[in-house]
Fold each of these.
Amino acid sequence: MAATQFAASFDGEQENMYQRDETTELTVRNHRADLLVEMQDICKSFGGVRALNNITFSIHRGEILALVGDNGAGKSTLIKVLAGALIRDHGDMIIEGEMVKTHTPRSAREQGIETVYQDLALFDQLDVTTNFYFGREITTKLGLLDKREMSRNVKLFLEEFGIVIKSVSQRVGTLSGGQRHSIAIGRAVYVNRNPKLIILDEPTAGLGVEQSRNVLQLIRELKKRKLAVILISHNMDHVLAVSERILVLRSGKLVAEKRTEATNVESLLQAMLGKGNEDAK
Amino acid sequence: METQSTSSGLSGPKDRPAVLKVALLSFFTRWGPLVILLLLCAVIGLIQPRFLTFSNIINVLHRSATLLIVAMGMTFVILTAGIDLSVGGVMGLAGAVLVGASRLPVVEHFALAAALLLGAAVGCGNAFMVTRFRMAPFVVTLATMAITRSITWVYTGGNPLTGVPSYVAFLGRGHVGPFPPAILLALVLFLILGVLLQKTRFGTYTYGIGANNEAARRFGVDVRRHLLKVYALSGALAAVAGVIISARLNSAYPNTGEDYELMAIAAVIVGGSNLFGGEGRLIGTLFGVLIIEVIRNGLNLIGINVFWHKALLGFIILIAVISRTLASRES
């Protein structure tokens, strides 16, 4: 879809495929200057199964956008397309105003998009510093690891983000669940020289109340630093606590887009499950 | 904002016994092999003072050298969550190739290189099968062990082949001061490989692949290529050990390297490495090797049936694995 058609949809002249409330329209229009990523008519199929069906949305700098939906709604597929892990069958992807033709995990990282998957991709037997720098180690002129420099940098970073652990030489496997999630998120921000968008897949899964609170606070810290966050979560309370805008997927379609402050759990569940008057054409 | 919680949920005086338990278990996992080694030396030395003589210590170190070289290669493989059962077979075949090649004109000058390349090539073959066809390393290297052993027996006709090249003979029967060259070679390799493992990206990726193969791949490590290098290293080191033994005997015996795969694995496990990958140190492997050779030597000197050696080693392996399991569970 051309950029003009996309722009027209914001003026309400074009029939929307999904419901977007008035406050969301106004907010999106005002934030065009901060537009980071636009996904237009994204489609993805696996054999005969249409996992994504003409998904269109955008995200802005410093925005926390939540992606909700039942199992099989297409959330993971959508973020994998965004992260370059999957190739879209159809649709346009525009990052900072530039159309993206080929998108791979490497090009996504180069464009400042980092993903923290649910499994966290941590090395439990290795220490925090090694986890942070894995794949991007600092070496001396002789080609040996500069562990002192790496440890120092990691300590400073953790202090800046308020992530408290006993020692950066501590094995990640000995950390609590909340600390592990924080390390995984911190690493995603840290290792990218120019992070712009962090995608978090179930960042509070399996965590207790306090640990979840800490992770959510860390997500707010990301926003303070003008990083955009896309958050996938089944926990509606967490979604409502931290996000500003919520996209609801159902059966591969984007069925609702809501301002967090103007919605509630019941409304989101109705949209997810297709009850009430939420269905789009 | 602080994201903080104690890693084990322990705090306060009531939890001190548990904290102490974890600390002790962790200490034993890390330094237990050294403690066991020192205890063994003390006990055997008390029973048989000849054990602690300089000449006997050199004898133990000399025997340890070849096992250490093989075990260091095995350490790298086990760290990646793999295993290499072909090292014994490679040792035998390398010795046979060394002697066989030295009998051919022109090629004789490259006999040593041929033996080492053969070891590396077998290792590459193992890695190829493991990564390309996603076969279990145990199965692949078990097959390679059988193949290399069989080729050696057929090539040698079941008899020793005599006559290692002169430039290699020194390695087996020479001396540098009071030390056989094999000890010095093992020491040099230990230092080089220690730096490689602890201080380079290669070492980090070796640990990382064993700790989380998928994550390593996501962070840009070419896992397939890395495993090729690790298994090639193991094969090459096994070939070095085979060359040393052949040089010592001035002959390539078809059964050279028999049981070495099990001894090497035992040394790595006793030394504290995790059989499932991601954890371990070469210094631990060194302790493991010395424990094995001290037991063998000690039992011989004391006059106990040397066949009890494997039973005693088996007990030590069990203790090592149990302490590691308990330490992991507690922490």
Note: Residues 1-18, 277-281 of chain A have pLDDT under 50 and may be disordered.
Amino acid sequence: MSSENVTVRKRKRGFFSEIRTNGALFLMLVPGAIVLLINNYLPMFGVVIAFKRYRLFNNFFDSVIRSEFVGFDNFAFFFKSPYAFNITRNTILYNLVFIALDLIVPVALAIALNELRNKRGSKTYQSLMFLPYFLSWIVVSYLAYSFLSMDKGFINTTFLSMFGLDPVNWYSETKAWPFILTFFHMWKYTGYNIVVYIASIAGIDSEYFEAASLDGASKWQQIRHITLPLLQPIMIIMTLLAVGRIFNADFGLFYNVTKNSGSIASVTDVIDTYVYKALRNSNNMGMTAAAGLYQAVVGCITVFTANMVVRKIDKDKALF
Amino acid sequence: MKMKRYLCLALVVVFMLAIALTGCGGDKASSDSSTAASTAAESSAAAESSTAEATATVPAETVDLTWILAGPQADPDVDMIAQKASEYLKDKLNVNLKMQVFSYGTAYDNKVNAMLSAGEAIDVVFTAGWAADYKNNAQKGFFLALDDYLKNSPIREIDGEDFLNSAKINGKIYAVNTNKEQAHQWGFLLKKDLVDKYKVDIASIKKMEDLEPVFEQIKKNEPGIYPLLPVQMDAPFKLLDWDNLSADDAPGALYPVNGKTTVVNQFTAPESIAHYKKMQEYYKKGWIPADAATLEGQVTLMTSGKYFANSQSMKPGKDAEMKISTKIDWVQLNLTPAVKTNREAGGSMLAIPAKSKNPDRAFKFIEMLYTDKTLRNMFSFGLEGVHYDKVSDNVIAMKPDNKGYASAGNGWRFGDQFKDYLVKDVDDPQKWEKFKQFNDSATALDSLGFAFNPKDVEAEVAACQSVVQNYYKQLFTGSVKDVDAEVAKMDKELKTAGVEKVLKEMQTQYDAFLAAKK
């Protein structure tokens, strides 16, 4: 109740009195806001390119303005593709799996790490899991290759031959790739996601746990009734943020780790790799911009929808 | 309210990690439009501030001249060479030369196409039908028309009127052809030690199939050596010698003989299907590396010495040229007849990007690569005493331990190659005479000079290219289970992508071209 009174009173105060009281805070906001403006808002002007046949004139802005307007022509190449359905399905399904696993696995590991008595051990595990995040996908692709190579890879030469099985040409084995890609995604990003959840677990008041254990609650009960409910808001936020990018795929993962192998394209091609393959040779700014805009618009719609659903269920927990 | 607090916490953590890690993130520049737009915006700002500078024709002040070139690898020694060249040019052109070499293939295309569309101020750029697609980029206005510069230039005489004009697009020349071989033929480079060991009679081999007994022997007796190396587009598929009307991965080609004027889809033509089956047979026999479909970088793989034969575009002395860059002895096997096509006409050229700040001096520089023997040999072979030693006036010996300039010997990429030094014990002393003979003996195809304008079928061409990209590697390397099924699938997808519309448009344009020629 009291907090609501405060907001009501604040609203009544004018903009300038707000600046006067919180001047220092607003000043601190300025550098970040400028960076955001330059990096995220200024380039938005570029969406115009999606509707133009881009040609070079005096400078970039001039080029954008004077290029011929072609309406939705640039979007056509995407829908003319025989893969339009396939790549959309792949992008969404992979992202759904990633969103689900990125929620469950890091939360479970964060709780487990937090429960470890040996704090140094916990820190070591955490760092080790964080390490893959620093590797570029190019490096990871060669790591994967050292396992999956047909004639020199570890799996074929050591593992399968140990059981007397025939070597598998992994880079043309469509069935394996959904699992391989999921594995490498989790391997690379879990450590990063854990940090977010560990930070919020650390923020939970320890009195809750003390009170619960005095009342004889088991570890399991503490996790179920204290940790998880208190983590729920941040879990929702992280998920909503991920849902906003459901139409964007991790280019490095889908292009490099698969070694751009054509035989498995039906299960590994996503929107980003498709656009890259189709337009790499033709240097077509308009069509690439169109693909980017399409992804952004659909992502925007999904995130609003997801937020609406959350708000329907629990108004307090929605993002906006 | 509570949500806001958590949101803040989450955002702070994420942003702090993001800031701390941006330097380490290896995210490749993807097709994300927003990043492309932002880099473009930055560079345009830079370009704007400089347009005010006068483009002086009199070399009173030193200017930077940036030259982007394709090569076997990103050579570490180019800075050193560029610096020496700048010293040499001090009282001639007064430029501070900056060179960048990117390796052939996707690396070059990606970098250069991005630089061009962002309007970066580069001055001289290597382009070809197969690198930073000349026709495409010229039609999009990324290159400067050079006709005025060429009016009284010595390049006119060196290149010859016909060869110079073969670069014409809509009546204008946007890049100058390197004066080198003006025709091509396809064949194999075979590892010399194995040719000698198995006493291969080169003269008796007329087609790829004639090599089969040799492949068989090598597979049996030489563990660790693969008989045949197909890498991406550098595969024996090239021996079919399709006269491609657009990019190598876009459907639409003519048979490489005069008189046949029907545009066909070269990827599903009966000849190609027969070839895929042949390759599949070789693959099953273990003559082709098991992971051929995912290999990249032909020259690097050749240097490893683990492969007996690889398909190449031939000219007199190709074996010698490849010896310099791979340090392995090769025997040259020419298979297809020599023809003059758009492939050579756009095989190697230099263009001046539309955004160059000093086009006048850039053109003078290009001109000097045709006329100044000392200058062009710096780029063809590196520096005397560092990369090579002089034996006599026109003959040099490469230093065997040179690793910093793998481009050495690749003088075909710029200017007048006939002015290159000859390498002792490697090059034929008659090399340039043989080049001339080769040029004179080749027949010119009717399609020479035809430039397909994809304006009305851009979406279909892009969609078709994406289909070809998904299939060509496994078909060209024979690593498919069932050729017919795979081709049928590709054909169906190409039809959905609108291949028929593309071929029809090509046919219309080509017929008009032929009619205008008469």
Note: Confidence is low (pLDDT under 50) at residues 1-8 of chain A.
